[in-house]
Amino acid sequence: MRSSLKLSIGQYSDKGCKPTNQDFHGALVPKEPQLSMKGAAVVLADGISSSDVSQVASETAVKGFLLDYFCTSDAWSVQHSVERVLHATNSWLLSQTQKSQYRFDTDRGYVCTFSGIVFKAAVAHLFHVGDSRIYRLHSNALEQLTNDHRLYVSQEESYLSRAMGMTPELGLDYRAVPVKAGDLFLLATDGVYEYLDAVQVLNALEQHEGLDDAARVLVEQALAKGSDDNLTLQLVRVDQLPSANVPGLQQQIEELPFAPELDARMQFDGYEILRELHRTSRSHVFLAQDLETDERVVIKLPSVDLRGDTEYLERFLLEEWVARRINSAHVLKAPTQVRPRNYIYTVAEYIEGQTLKQWLVDNANPSLETVRGIIEQVAKGLQGFHRKEMLHQDLKPDNIMIDSNGTVKIIDFGSTQVAGLDEIMRTEEVGGILGTALYTAPEYFLGELGSVRSDQFSLGVLTYYMLSGRFPYSTAVAKAKTPAAQRRLSYESVRDDHSEIPAWVDEALKKAVHLNPYKRYDEISEFIYALRQPSQAFLSRTRPPLMERNPVAFWQGVSLVLAIIIVMLLER
Asked: Tell me: the pLDDT tens digits for 369-427?
């Protein structure tokens, strides 16, 4: 059985000596599977005293975050999800100020600080802007985990330099902190932390069993010490850390049996098996028809030899999980699940067509324009992965299908990296090469993490192979497993003595498959554009001579030079 994340949370807020409490706070611990996929959130916001509407900003920031964060994609990392949500909230608050009577005085507008923690797996993800603070009780001392965004003019005078709703650029701080069971975190506004120390916190925790009571007592003590501001304190204790596996997938592995041997005309879990499509050492694939919808689908069963490998089974089930979360005409889809399953298997749409590998056999030496058309569709599919913070990591002709209408689709997601799931798995080391060596980016062979530029490398190699039937570094990349060995590799031009491929297309390919990922294109869209338009850098290097560009100007220049020479000779 997998264990879940368990937190104890205590919160208390008081307006103190102020007429209005401009602080706002909240926490949300969702149920499974969302708790494992998105984590639990604890946040607070502190309005600025110079504004009469900043309590609206505080409430909006906290409520908006707790609502919107848990609606972001399961595939996104915590950092990406939080930043998307808070940047949207920041823009909304700023627009409210600009539409109000305070548009010329931001200090009186919809402005607040924001500090929050998302607990996911064994990591606390901290987000912060302003001067509220996050602490961790560590070795009987309070360890401050955030930096105050204040600009000090003198010892007596200071200003907030960053806050929600202050400027178009949020300037959000992010920090990931490993946690263990028993860790205690504090989130506090300045009305509390300026009058708080570790001894008070420890005493309150010893004297009060509930964290709500401890938070209330600490706020009352700060008030008694002379705090003249709003006071808000949140205490969060990590009671239990979750198992390092994917919810849902792990449940299927634990609870569902393996399917029986399938054959044509068999009825299986609401499907009729039509025929076997192919069988490998890793999976058995069948064409089937849904008996309820009459839809043709592809059913994949795990290999009998690998059924004891939990890591393999999770990757096997991950394929359908990925397919359900990417909405692209150029990525294989998974049909809507309409009934519970009784066995471990995956279902995907049936594509009536052929793999790109077979297409290249049937269409040897395709034209440059044909290759462009196919690669542009593959690129759109990859962009669908990247929008969800996923990397395909195994792009090759076998994993690309072309249907009867000419639509190109990426298939086979067994090697896909998902940022949101990586946080759950808590992998500390980069695993082995998941993709096919000839198409795999060189940084993987150095043990480095991949990026969208890694998928771009694979796309560049695929383009190169379609145009030439060769590889840009032959087969040497997989053998070069040190930076020094990779530096000795050299790019082989896609052009040959009989090639009609323009030199500028070769330049585009060379950049896309550069051994250094930071010297490739920033975006795949730039590579696709470069396959159709020569770059300015290339044009400047290959500018035709003046005689070809402007013969009149050339001969006028020659005449001028000759005239000067004649004059000089006459003077002698």
From this structure: 999 999 999 999 999 999 999 999 999 999 999 999 999 999 999 899 999 988 887 55
**8-state DSSP, 242:** P
CA dist., res. 562 & res. 384, Å (int) = 63
**DSSP strand E in 105-199: where?**
112-120, 123-129, 133-138, 141-144, 150-152, 158-160, 173-178, 184-188
For residues 193 and 267, membership in a common domain is answered with: no
50 shares its domain with 123: yes
Q: Quick check: is 1 in a domain?
A: no
How many CB atoms are closer than 10 A to CB 153? 8
CATH code of 271's domain: 3.30.200.20
Q: How far is CA 396 from CA 312, 358, 466, 514, 548, in A?
A: 21, 12, 11, 18, 43
Distances (CA, A) of 423 to 40, 120, 123, 124, 420: 14, 7, 8, 11, 6
Token readout for 557 is 């220049």
Do residues 408 and 334 share a domain? no
pTM recorded for the entire structure: 0.83
In a domain, 46, yes or no: yes
Structure tokens at 76: 């996104």
Question: How far is it, in rounded angstroms, from Cα 185 to Cα 115?
Answer: 12
- Calpha distance 493→472 (Å, rounded): 7
* C-beta of residue 11 within 8 angstroms of C-beta of residue 27: yes
What is the rounded distance in angstroms from the CA atom of residue 376 to the CA atom of residue 516?
Answer: 23
Length of the chain: 572
